[in-house]
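Field: COMPLEX_INPUT
Field: COMPONENT_COUNT = two
Field: RESIDUE_TOTAL = 906
Field: MODE = joint
Values follow.
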Amino acid sequence: MSEIKDFIDKNSPRFLDELFTLLRIPSVSSQQEHREDMYTCARQYVVSLMEAGADKAQIYPTTGHPVVYAEKIIDPGKPTVLVYGHYDVQPVDPIELWKSPPFEPEIRDGAIYGRGADDDKGQSFMHVKAFEYLVSRNELPCNVKFLIEGEEEIGSPSLGAWARENKDMLACDVMLVSDTTMISEDVPSINTGMRGLAYLEVKVTGPDKDLHSGHYGGAIANPINVLCSMIARLIDEKGRITVKGFYDDVVELSAEDRALLGRAPFDPEHFKKSIGVSDLAGEEGYSTLERTGIRPCLDVNGIWGGYTGEGAKTVLPSYAKAKISMRLVPNQDHKKISRLFASHFTSLAPSGVKVEVQEHHGGQGFLAPISSPVYQAAAKAVGQVYGVDPVPSRGGGSIPILAELEGILNAPPLLMGFGLERDTIHSPNESYLLSQFYRGIESIVLFYKYYTK
Amino acid sequence: MSEIKDFIDKNSPRFLDELFTLLRIPSVSSQQEHREDMYTCARQYVVSLMEAGADKAQIYPTTGHPVVYAEKIIDPGKPTVLVYGHYDVQPVDPIELWKSPPFEPEIRDGAIYGRGADDDKGQSFMHVKAFEYLVSRNELPCNVKFLIEGEEEIGSPSLGAWARENKDMLACDVMLVSDTTMISEDVPSINTGMRGLAYLEVKVTGPDKDLHSGHYGGAIANPINVLCSMIARLIDEKGRITVKGFYDDVVELSAEDRALLGRAPFDPEHFKKSIGVSDLAGEEGYSTLERTGIRPCLDVNGIWGGYTGEGAKTVLPSYAKAKISMRLVPNQDHKKISRLFASHFTSLAPSGVKVEVQEHHGGQGFLAPISSPVYQAAAKAVGQVYGVDPVPSRGGGSIPILAELEGILNAPPLLMGFGLERDTIHSPNESYLLSQFYRGIESIVLFYKYYTK
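Field: COMPLEX_OUTPUT
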């Protein structure tokens, strides 16, 4: 058994205990009621980083939730790795579908269950433990900085400005990020690109109060019916988004690049079964992995209006609302897309209703450089731990801030994620396999070694 | 001043006090938590009816909420009027829009504010007071029965069976109902027909759990997007409902009948202003009053799915639901329409989603006989009180049970309603004008006199 494996084996109860302390803090960044929890969680990260061997670790206020920054500088002449992660988590609704309470982590069938178990407390904590190992053995081969933010799930509204102000402190050669998935335990993969995001909220208002549907039904535009019709018209029968100009900046991949991506193993039957659907859908002319990896899409993330309680209420409601987001591909600008969407959506409204569009957040997609020494070091590390070479893959999700940080720090991000689809992040019963947690720590240690060789 | 006006003037503080006692009871029939309140409210009606002079008044259990029945038989050989009303009310959501708590009635600007102020505690209570007046003066000219039910707002699921069992007890010559509106205080009207109702709830399910919209977005059918598309296809660009066979039983009115209805005064600008909309909408080729009176319509009464809380959540939800109701015209059978809807709606689903349709409740529309002595008596009474002849009108709402009771009891209903659009029944800040409350009592007293002359 290797020394690192042995270290993990001996210390795993303590690692889990420390991680569970983080998981118990309900650091939901989108909800005001958790404002204090954000500080509590940030403080706990500072404690963990100091205990792991950082020279300094502290909380920095921002215009939003605070940022945790830590560093260990062994030699200013050596390369510097900046570990990026986030301590904030998604809301827990629908709470009733959780088998165990989201903020009372527990282990079942070899996996940690709890909000943040994977995204991103579990994954970011692997870096803390890999760092601890290297420091404890005096084997840290380069400078390491940690940037753990508290607003990733709400689009990192404050981090860009803060990073610009603290550009020198954050200076690095590569940003190392574990906040994505790999294809499977048998088919490890390393993410080479992420989609961007434009997230908006829309409101359609008809009458200025709720009305009796018997007295008014048939005579005025019902805002729910109208909203449904407007949403229905956002995607055409070929699965393409109808927003004018939406595809203008989308780069079509070459046949060669598509063939390369097509090498990633994908079993549609298994995929369908894993999420309980009988059929797949999406943009005509693209495979499922292309649809989630290299093509943009539009989803309604939430909708509400009128009476939603028990039984029946014959109301013609005053308004209806929806949260609508678009995943973007590299080269699409989320601000431009948000503008195009707002203008197109408003143009779909019939007379007699008022439409409001509010921008929630957004971020650019990006492509990571596959041929770089950083990627090669990661591939070697992961390949050694998993016993098989990782395949390059494109992630459908978004880490909106990464493209911005890349611009500020002039350092490429490397997305070495250990999550699996089965972790159901953002959903009830989020989990993280213990085996992935341990192999992640091991892979990160090896990455440092190969990166600095 | 007439004797009845004098009586109302002297007793109005007591009348309001008694009515407020009823309004304070939160008898929301659709919500289980109010089950006990239904009994409390029924008991209070029994008290009011006994105090007003009924020979007997009692609560009858049904398979649902109880029925209140009371009677005063002065001479079996004389005609019998059955007063129909209901003591149940609509839910109060959205509660935050109420200016005063819904179950703490108060008077502002000459109107009673509270849930049920008009629909139907306020209106049904006018009958109790008119009855009290006639009994107190020994002037009751005919037999009077009261049937006050507790399930009108949920489609009267139990009353039909109960009425069939108690057919003899309920025997009458006319059903007198105040549960509708008149055009305005200046243009009194009497309802000559009501629309029927078919109310359903639909659910579209995609994946078996909520998913991360980044990882899955673009690759599977999103149940909210799908539900919106299905709803959008229920009404065509001419405002006609696309459910196959929907219009088969709709009777087109003759040009003459349409012209008669067209005589009702209607100011579109005032109508739009009163509900805060900039434009009207509806089925092509029909006027607004026709759209709400003689034409069927389809409205989404509620919709929900995905994340509806504060901020943004990038979820691709497992399911989306909607409450959808159709107002029907006389001769359309609500059971047939519900079947046609379920079958049509299901046929609109793309592969990859599961559709469930659940029937909530329904009721037939009906037409009241305009030329009958009952209508003529009501017209004379209302005309005398308001100083202008009432116009016949068609109500857009539904009292689903009336058509059924008419069949069971073989007695026509007479809809003498004193509500106004401004009362915003079913909405926040339901109200009832004191002047309408008083003029209603007076009109009812006169109706008895003219009806038995």
